[in-house]
UniProtKB/TrEMBL annotation:
Ranges where the NADPH-dependent FMN reductase-like domain occurs: 9-156
Domain of life: Eukaryota
InterPro entries (UniProt xref): Flavoprotein-like_sf, FMN_Rdtase-like_dom, NAD(P)H-dep_reductase
Coiled coil location: none
Name of a matching Pfam family: FMN_red
Protein's name according to its UniProt entry: NADPH-dependent FMN reductase-like domain-containing protein
GO molecular function ontology, one term from the record: FMN binding
SUPFAM superfamilies in the record: Flavoproteins
PANTHER family: CHROMATE REDUCTASE, NAD(P)H-DEPENDENT FMN REDUCTASE LOT6
Single GO cellular component term: cytosol
Amino acid sequence: MRIDHLATNVCVLLGSVRPNRNGERLAKYIVNELEKCDDVSVQLIDPKDLNLPILMARYDDIKDSQECPPSLHGLQKALTACTSLIIVSPEYNHAIPPAVSNTLDYFSHAEFYFKPVGLVTYSVGQYGGVRAGSQYASYLRALGLVGVPRVLSVPEVQNTLDKDGHVLVNSLRASFSAFADELMWFDAALSAQRETGLPGHH
Ligand SMILES: Cc1cc2nc3c(=O)[nH]c(=O)nc-3n(C[C@H](O)[C@H](O)[C@H](O)COP(=O)(O)O)c2cc1C
């Protein structure tokens, strides 16, 4: 993986809160790989730890009130500070899982404008979550994120990595490396451009 710029700060959102979720092994692998890079800081966002209620009001509308879930403040800071986001997402009924949308929908949308997002989908079956993947394009655009073209799809995730995130199927390494290179390219480009200001009213 080639990293040639400074101050890269990646948030990795794990898209499942199920007991024994398979996504944990993939998120662990991704966090471990990114932590090996000198100039990258990485933070796992785990909706299980955040324990957010089903969204009733956006963060901006509740941040100063007692209704605001305490974990939302730290999440908002992490998202604001990050220079790119990786979403590690299962596919639930061919769609985006609630652990993802119920986490990101709280924000509107200064935390995301105009940052790159890399999408990693997975499933226990053959398709690697690609059907949910196709739904993400318009969702991420609505949030103000810039989707990186290359999506990493991991079929049979339970056989691809062990529970600690160690790789069992070697081809994942090259696929992840290509995915991460692309995300880092967009991270450098968009970070530099955001320094010059944001378009419109954002
Ligand atoms: C509510 C639900 C819906 C699912 N729908 C799909 C699906 O549409 N396509 C698919 O390939 N797998 C589907 N699965 C199987 C998941 O690929 C498998 O359970 C995977 O481990 C989910 O990720 P997680 O364990 O990290 O939650 C579904 C699982 C659940 C719990």
